[in-house]
Design a protein that fits this description.
Layout: H1 3-28, H2 39-68, H3 77-99, H4 104-113, H5 115-132, H6 136-142, H7 144-150, H8 152-167, H9 173-206
The structure holds protoporphyrin IX containing FE.
Amino acid sequence: MTRRSLALIKALVIVACVIPFAWVAARAFGFAGDLGANPVQMVLHTFGKTGLNLLILTLAITPIRKQTGLNWLVALRRTLGLAAFAYILLHAITYAVLDQGLAWRSLLVDVAMRPYITVGFLALVLMVPLAVTSTNAMQRRLRRRWVQLHRLVYLIGILGAVHFLWLVKIDVTEPLLYMAVLALLLGYRVIDWQRRNRKRRLRAARKPT
Ligand code: HEM
């Protein structure tokens, strides 16, 4: 993969990430139809779902890279992760501003008393340190701690799926599917960590003393 092709792929990924936002913005301003009978709900759902999808895509990069040997995929991880954060932030802002009209007291009550909002809020808060430390400089500075910190992304994904499961009232098929995909991705990483640890231990045992 040349630098130029990678830059092109990155640019295409960025454009793809912006599409759901552009779709919402276009409809909000009356282009390409409207946002339906309940526009706030439509915006909330579009941003929430896009954020969760992008988070899962971010988590899928490492397993796909390891299985296919396409190492350049790792260069897309940060872009996808930051786009996921941007959508979840927009999702929460939509709720706070458009749905609740920035009524702080009612927002605080929601965070404290409505379990699905509590879990979503926790996931959003946990995403902040990951976004802040996503730069190369931070990665170099934190080294091993960066890797440990960024494992939080699995917990964030699970919290996001639990948030979804909790808010659905009738058909839980979709949130359960998200949970199953997350369980697969986490299972893959656990098996991979165990395999690497075993190799490391074997190598250490073979070293002459
Ligand atoms: C402060 C944080 C958050 C707040 C206040 C919040 C609030 C909401 C609300 C009010 C809904 C719509 C509920 C309904 O239909 O009645 C919703 C849906 C949803 N949220 Fe969140 N959320 C937050 C964080 C998150 C996070 C972190 C994720 C994912 C990682 C997420 C993903 C979703 C998804 C997938 C839906 C359902 C979309 C659909 O049904 O199509 N949310 N959220």
